[in-house]
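During the reporting period the student researcher (J.K.) took over the structure-prediction task from the postdoctoral fellow and processed the backlog of single-chain submissions. One of the processed entries is reproduced below for the supervisory committee.
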Amino acid sequence: MLIHPQIDPVALALGPIAIHWYGLTYLAAFALFVGLGHLRLKHEPYAAQVVLGSWSKQDIEDILFFGVMGVVLGGRIGYCVFYNPSYYLAHPLEVFAVWQGGMSFHGGMLGVFVATAVFAWQRHRPWLWVTDFIAPCVPTGLAAGRVGNFINGELWGRAADPTLPWAMVFPQSGSLIPRHPSQIYQFLGEGILLFIVLWLYARKPRAIGAVSGAFMIGYGSLRFVAEYFREPDAQLGLLALGMSMGQWLCVPMMLVGVALWLHAARQPQPA
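J.K. obtained the following structure tokens:
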């Protein structure tokens, strides 16, 4: 079995200023989104709209700004509500202590939904047209975030068979139990694999909402499986049917994704 390399979370210290690896992974996620967004503008139907002037490269930066706000606010509020509501009800001011950690993907996704809805309303565009645009650009950012989780030695996996070649001890867990490196599983599944599938799927014109539905189905199913290898949150443990909170949050996500994809499948395909 392997031992977590115990990487210093501070990538660079300049006097009192410390630059953390986790922060750099966020910057990498934003940079990847911008780069992929520029490539996405070459896909139909967005390429035609660039010619007509209703879509531009400036839109990508604007969407990123709205998305970052949605991720931060939604992710933090989602964590407080979904994963530790009793604690934050007793300590409401600590909701704002984001430097202590605690972000929820599902909360961040809801925040992005709201943020993109505002963007779509401001630009007079169909909301699902906007979410279809950004969906293939998201998984690489998720992959970058999982790299940050691994560097920090957090969100480790459940106990694994010691004979598993990649079983890993995470001293941060407070034990020497070999565990699944679930951050790597999620990096490969929800990050790399989901990106490849979505990017190839979205390269061809699809009915509005189809790409968004495919993202929700793909992420929800891959995250649901990954949760079987990831240690559940200590304050929650496993919930009904032996499922974690992450899995329960994936269930409505997958159902909405299936409904959205089926609805799109009944619509006429774009030329």
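The committee noted the following: The mean pLDDT is 90.
J.K. will present the remaining backlog at the next meeting.
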